[in-house]
């Protein structure tokens, strides 16, 4: 795969530097490496999610023969489904110490 700077990179490596530039991608369908970059995970992690090995992180995909594609709305939905709300902090208890 070629990065947006024209450099050839190996997307199977966890530190592969692929970016979409300043603007979010406008494409509807993503290849596996593109989807992994979009989600901010490694290619292997995305493949594990696709395989259903991590039930909390299943991602919908389409397959045409050996080609796997991810629709952007499915990637966005997967991110939203795994959203964690922060816990509300409990107010500090007021204890009076009386002698």
What this model shows, in words?
The chain has a domain at 29-81. It contains three helices and three strands. Residues 14-18 have low confidence and may be disordered. It is α+β, with helices and mostly antiparallel strands and 99 residues long. Helix 1 packs across helix 2 (43-50).
Give a short synopsis of this structure:
The chain is built from three helices and three strands. It is α+β, with helices and mostly antiparallel strands. A three-stranded antiparallel sheet has the order 1-3-2.
Using only CA atoms, what is the Rg?
A: 20 Å
Q: Which sequence of SSEs, written as H and E, runs from N to C?
A: EHHEEH
Task: Tally the helices.
Answer: 3
Broad structural category: alpha+beta
Helix content: 25-40%
Name the quaternary structure: single chain
Number of extended strands = 3
Output the keywords.
99 residues, alpha+beta, three-stranded antiparallel β-sheet, 3 helices, 26% helix, elongated
What order do the helices and strands come in, and which of them pair?
Elements: E1 29-30, H1 32-39, H2 43-50, E2 62-64, E3 67-71, H3 72-81
Antiparallel strand pairs: 1-3, 2-3
Helix pairs in contact: 1-2
């Amino acid at each position: 795969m070629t990065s947006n700077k024209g450099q050839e990179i190996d997307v199977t490596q966890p530190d592969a530097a692929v970016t979409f530039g300043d603007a979010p991608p406008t494409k509807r369908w993503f290849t596996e490496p593109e989807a992994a970059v979009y989600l901010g995970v490694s290619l292997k992690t995305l493949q594990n999610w696709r395989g259903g090995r991590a039930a909390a992180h299943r991602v919908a995909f389409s397959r045409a023969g050996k080609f796997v594609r991810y629709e952007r709305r499915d990637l966005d939905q997967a991110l939203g489904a795994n959203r964690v709300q922060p816990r509300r902090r409990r107010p500090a208890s007021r204890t009076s110490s009386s002698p």
